[in-house]
Design brief:
By secondary structure, the protein is an alpha/beta fold. The protein has 8 helices and 7 strands, in the order βαβαβαβαβαβαααβ. The protein has one domain: Rossmann fold (3-Layer(aba) Sandwich), CATH 3.40.50.720. It starts with 19 loop residues before the first strand and ends in a 7-residue tail after the last strand.
Amino acid sequence: MSTVTDSSTALRQPALLGQTVVLIGGSSGIGLETARLARAEGADVVLTGRDPERLRRAATDVGARSHAAFDATDSDRLQAFFRSLPTPVDHIMVTAGRPYYARLADMDIADASRYIAEHVRLPLEVARHAVGTVRPGGALLYTGGTGARRPAVGISISALLTAGLPALVANLALELAPIRVNLIAPGFVDTPLSASLLGDGLDERRDQLRATLPISRVVGPQDVAALAVHVMINTALTGATFDIDGGQQLT
């Protein structure tokens, strides 16, 4: 007796089978969910993060091949990490960092300047290390945001970086080719970082978004992870910025 397999129900081969994905900032939130989904698609994952214990738990949770605890804005540690990687890797995603919010009157200009320098240097250094580390056709993927595109009091520094990162990514896509370089720009995402920033106002923000977003729900890290893995898989994508905010900019 023979068995006929319906192609519509046949198991799909994992899209990242045998590939290696490096998550810089992969111990929680978007980075961790991307690592989890990449693993589900057959990839080996390498995680980094600042907090050694949280990173260890994350690495165990997703079955990471390896992990390294360090501050990604430390140039020497970042270089040492890249030197330790078995090459080539297939994809690198950078989610490290948090926004800088302060009114001009309250702003520590020296602190703000250091923040800007670090958040410009990090993507440049990762891009430079990616050469010779990421295979041709692999992806270098950054994360930015959409929230600072609309002027508001207290977001000047975040707005500066939000506006500049898409231009940087487009230019890096030309310089690093055939490595693909793209940017994911989320709006509000319900992550531990969002919870730490909003504190007691988190539930109110969630309710507001459920009531106003066209999708009638809050964007989660799993949504962004799904987009990130798609950008890794789709080899026609480079130099682009992909917004994912549930239609927040429309409202």
